[in-house]
Amino acid sequence: MSRPPLLLFALLCSLSLFAQKQHRQLPLDTAIVSENTVRIKGKAVPYEVETGVQPVYDDNGKVTAGLHYTYYRRTDQTDPNRPLLISFNGGPGSASVWMHLAYTGPKVLNIDEEGYPVQPYGISDNPYSVLDLTDIVYVNPVNTGFSRMVEGADREQFFGVNQDIKYLADWISNWVSRHDRWRSPKFLIGESYGTTRVSGLALELQDNRWMYLNGVILVSPTEIGIERAGIVEAANQLPYFAAAAWYHKQLPTELQSMELEPLLAEVEAYTRNELLPALASGMDLSDARRREVAAAAARYSGLDAQEWLDNNLMPSAAYFWKNLLRGEEAGNYTVGRLDSRYRGVDARAAGERPDYNSELTSWLHSFTPAINYYLREELGFRTDLQYHMFGPVHPWDRSGDRTGYNLQQAMAMNPYLNVMIQSGYFDGATNYYDAKYTLWHLDPSGRMRDRLSFKGYESGHMMYLRRPDLEAANEDVRTFIRASLPGEKPARY
Fold this sequence. Notes:
With 493 residues, this protein is α/β, with parallel strands linked by helices. It folds into two domains: 30-227 and 366-483, Rossmann fold; 231-358, no CATH class. The protein is built from 15 helices and 14 strands. GO terms for molecular function: serine-type carboxypeptidase activity. This is Carboxypeptidase.
């Protein structure tokens, strides 16, 4: 028997309202715990892994978001002074997946020795993880990974340089309290935009949460608010150009035959002593000197002298990615932005910039299935939410970025605080020479020189994807943490 039309209409309305109320929601306060063992440097390390969500509160104590995190704790050691490493990735808008599944954690992506994706997708044990020395928590800021705002929350409290730092400092303080880690020596590690984040957190945690850090690790750092625009930024690209050209065998024979680091030392000296002063001269530079600089820069970069002249001695990085391998002999490939070891194929050989980022396409190819499989199937974190590899966080308020200066102030106020920068020589987005420049200007006085260090690797932005650098970079983190544990030494100058 058919239903009366009005009854049918009412039923459909009720079903519609019911469906509207069923949102893909994140539980705002939950945790799932499991146990496992990994062999690190040949020794078995048992650990507990906790993946869950902890609330974000506003100034009135109201829950405004839930942050998803994954926490690894070694279980055969009970020392309350065991170090804690808090890890962030970048973007802004990037999930904490990259360092989680490819660098410091007990699991690493299935990729080849150079970092290229392989199938079947998945993960394996990381024999170089720093979990033997330090417990680790990977944090996804709002709208990255599974982290989400609550319905009706104000976006402006999250999506900006200083907003991000403020709410994350409060969240970290709560997390440390919940997990009884106040006695632990604490370290922050951030990659790319994550370096802006952790640089600002160093002072925010210290000033407003009274949490003093032992170390900050900046992986492929941004400018962190330290000014280097204009001719400095243009000149600083040459050492990176040389590295990428060397990798692709585009340099003259006498340079191509050199080891990379001695070659880069030579190019750095030329950049500082010759190229930068030439750019500062502008139109006052004589034609003869201009041609001389173009010839030298061409020799170091793989571009030709006319290209340097046509670009006023300042070819852009995008131009370099498009043109380094242009020409039939070089294959008309583009090179990657974040890792210039990667090559791409454009629709046209001509143009000013590549059609796409060949390296990022490769990474998303392998990381996306792996993190979804790992969290959902191995760790049991089941949700209908999409895992945001890159989440909706824009527009991002970049005003008032003084994070580098804040890090310097935190170091000055805290004699225990050390800083290490790690960079890949083939990174064209946050190039290694810019990273050195940032390091030099973190403390232009030189009075904290012994607390600042730089490590370079023959790979790109995510230098740990290359297997030899995965081992070397983790060992550098391990060495840095050990050196930053003061023991009984008082915090005083």
